[in-house]
C-alpha cells in the first residue's frame, strides 16, 4: 500500500469516544460500504460509532445496511466528538440532516474521499483521486493501522470496491484496488452474498423497464460511438421504477458494442440530470461535466443542465462528444 493515510487521522479515529459517520445523499455502494464498513471496524475497536443516512437507500442495499439513524437532534449531535464524512465531494451532497456543515466543523470534522476536486472543507481531509473507491481508502487506512478487520466490515468494504469499479472491470481498477480487495477477502468478506444481493437480484419490473428503455429511448450518434437515452417520467410511472435504484442503468448503454461514451438523462425539477461514462481513457468525460457545472471522476461524471427541452440538451452535448472523439 503506497498511499498512506495521514497519521493524524488514524490517531483521531482511534482516540475518539463516539464517531458520527456521514456520506453523500442518494448513497451508492461505495457510500454505504465505506460508512457501514467503518462503523463495524470502529465498533470492533471499542469506539462507539453511528451512521446517519437522512434519505432513502436503494433497495439492493437495504438488506445489508441496518440500524442507522435517519435523523438526529442537535442534542444528539453533541454526544459525538468526531464526525467523519466518507465518499462525499461537497457540501451540497452531504447527507447531514438538519445540521449545517458549519456546525459539523465545530467538531473534529474529518473527510475521507476519492473525488478529485473535493470541496467539503472539513477540518482535516484525506483525498485520494487515484483510489478507485472510498472503500479502498478505508481498507488502506485500516491496514496501515495493522489492526484486524472483522468480516462484517470486510463485506461492506468489498461491496463499495466492487460497485465503484464495476466489479473491477473499469479502468480505475489498479493493482492497489485489487490488493485492498484481496485483504477484505482474506478477512472473510462474503463475496457470494455481495454478488447475489447487489448484482444478481434485479426485480422483474426493472428488467422490463430496461427493455422498454432500450427499445424506445436508446439513440446512437458518432458512428455508434455515443449511446444515450432519456429516462421519461412515463416509463418510470409505467414500471413504478424508482430512479434511486438506477445505479448501473447507464452501464447497459456503456455495454453496447462500439460505444465509447454513454449518457443517461433524466428530467428533474432543477433541470436535466446528465450521467456520463467513458470506456476509453483518451476520452475523459469529466471536463464536459465540469463545463456545465458538474463534476465527478475522469471516466464517470455528471451535471445538471437547466433548459426546457431535451432537444436542447442534445444540441449542447452531442457536439461536445463529437469534438472529444475527434481529439479536439
Ligand atoms: Mn465512491
Query: Per CATH, which architecture of the largest domain?
Result: Alpha-Beta Complex
Total strands: the figure is 11
Q: What's the domain count?
A: 2
- Hetero groups bound? manganese (II) ion
**Quaternary form:** single chain
Main beta sheet: 6 strands, mixed
The assigned structural class equals: alpha/beta
Helix content: 40-55%
Widest sheet: strand ordering: 6-7-8-9-11-10
Low-confidence stretches: none
Mean of pLDDT: 94
C-alpha Rg, in Å? 20 Å
Number of helices: 14
- Strand fraction: 15-25%
Q: How far apart lie the N and C ends?
A: 37 Å
CATH top level assignment of the largest domain: Alpha Beta
What's the topology here?
Blueprint: H1 7-15, E1 18-22, H2 29-44, E2 48-51, H3 59-62, H4 74-78, E3 82-86, H5 101-105, E4 108-113, E5 124-127, H6 134-144, H7 151-164, H8 175-186, H9 191-199, H10 204-217, E6 219-221, E7 226-231, H11 233-238, H12 249-254, E8 261-268, E9 271-278, H13 286-291, E10 295-296, E11 300-305, H14 310-325
Parallel strand pairs: 1-2, 1-3, 3-4, 4-5, 7-8
Antiparallel strand pairs: 6-7, 8-9, 9-11, 10-11
Helix pairs in contact: 2-6, 2-7, 6-7, 6-8, 7-8
The structure holds manganese (II) ion (MN).
Describe the structure in your own words.
The protein is an alpha/beta fold and 328 residues long. It has 2 domains: 7-199, inorganic pyrophosphatase (n-terminal core), CATH 3.90.1640; 204-325, Diaminopimelate Epimerase, Chain A, domain 1, CATH 3.10.310. The chain contains 14 helices and 11 strands. The protein has helices at residues 7-15, 29-44, 59-62, 74-78, 101-105, 134-144, 151-164, 175-186, 191-199, 204-217, 233-238, 249-254, 286-291, 310-325, and strands at residues 18-22, 48-51, 82-86, 108-113, 124-127, 219-221, 226-231, 261-268, 271-278, 295-296, 300-305. A 6-stranded mixed beta sheet has the order 6-7-8-9-11-10. A hairpin with a 4-residue loop joins strand 6 and strand 7. It is globular, with a radius of gyration of 20 Å. The mean pLDDT is 94. The protein binds manganese (II) ion (MN). Manganese (II) ion (MN) is lined by residues 30, 87, 114, 133-134, 164.
Amino acid at each position: 500500500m503506497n498511499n498512506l493515510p495521514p497519521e493524524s487521522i488514524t490517531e483521531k479515529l482511534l482516540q475518539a469516544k463516539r464517531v458520527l459517520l456521514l456520506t453523500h445523499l442518494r448513497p451508492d455502494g461505495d457510500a454505504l460500504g465505506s460508512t457501514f464498513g467503518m462503523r463495524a471496524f470502529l465498533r470492533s475497536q471499542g469506539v462507539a460509532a453511528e451512521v446517519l443516512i437522512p434519505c432513502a437507500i436503494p433497495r439492493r442495499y437495504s438488506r445489508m445496511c441496518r440500524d442507522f439513524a435517519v435523523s438526529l437532534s442537535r442534542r444528539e449531535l453533541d454526544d459525538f466528538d468526531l464526525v467523519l464524512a466518507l465518499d462525499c465531494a461537497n457540501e451540497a451532497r452531504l447527507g447531514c440532516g438538519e445540521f449545517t456543515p458549519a456546525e459539523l466543523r465545530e467538531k473534529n470534522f474529518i473527510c475521507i474521499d476519492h473525488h478529485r476536486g473535493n470541496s467539503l472543507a472539513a477540518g482535516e481531509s484525506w483525498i485520494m483521486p487515484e483510489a478507485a473507491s472510498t472503500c479502498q481508502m478505508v481498507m488502506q487506512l485500516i491496514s496501515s493501522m495493522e489492526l484486524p478487520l472483522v468480516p462484517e466490515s470486510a463485506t461492506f468494504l468489498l461491496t463499495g470496491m466492487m460497485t465503484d469499479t464495476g466489479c473491477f472491470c473499469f479502468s480505475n481498477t489498479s493493482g492497489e484496488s485489487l490488493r485492498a480487495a484481496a485483504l477484505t477477502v482474506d478477512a472473510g468478506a462474503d463475496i457470494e452474498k455481495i454478488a447475489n444481493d447487489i448484482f444478481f437480484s434485479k426485480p422483474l419490473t426493472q428488467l422490463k423497464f430496461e427493455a422498454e428503455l432500450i427499445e424506445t429511448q436508446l439513440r446512437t450518434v458518432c458512428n455508434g460511438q455515443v449511446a444515450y437515452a432519456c429516462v421519461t417520467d412515463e416509463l418510470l410511472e409505467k414500471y413504478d421504477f424508482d430512479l434511486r435504484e438506477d445505479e448501473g442503468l447507464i452501464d447497459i448503454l456503456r455495454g453496447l458494442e462500439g460505444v465509447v461514451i454513454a449518457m443517461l438523462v433524466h428530467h428533474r425539477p432543477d433541470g436535466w440530470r446528465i450521467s456520463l461514462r467513458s470506456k476509453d481513457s483518451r476520452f475523459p468525460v469529466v471536463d464536459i461535466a465540469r463545463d456545465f457545472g458538474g463534476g465527478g471522476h475522469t471516466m464517470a461524471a455528471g451535471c445538471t443542465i437547466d433548459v426546457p427541452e431535451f432537444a436542447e440538451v442534445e444540441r449542447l452535448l452531442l457536439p461536445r462528444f463529437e469534438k472529444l472523439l475527434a481529439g479536439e
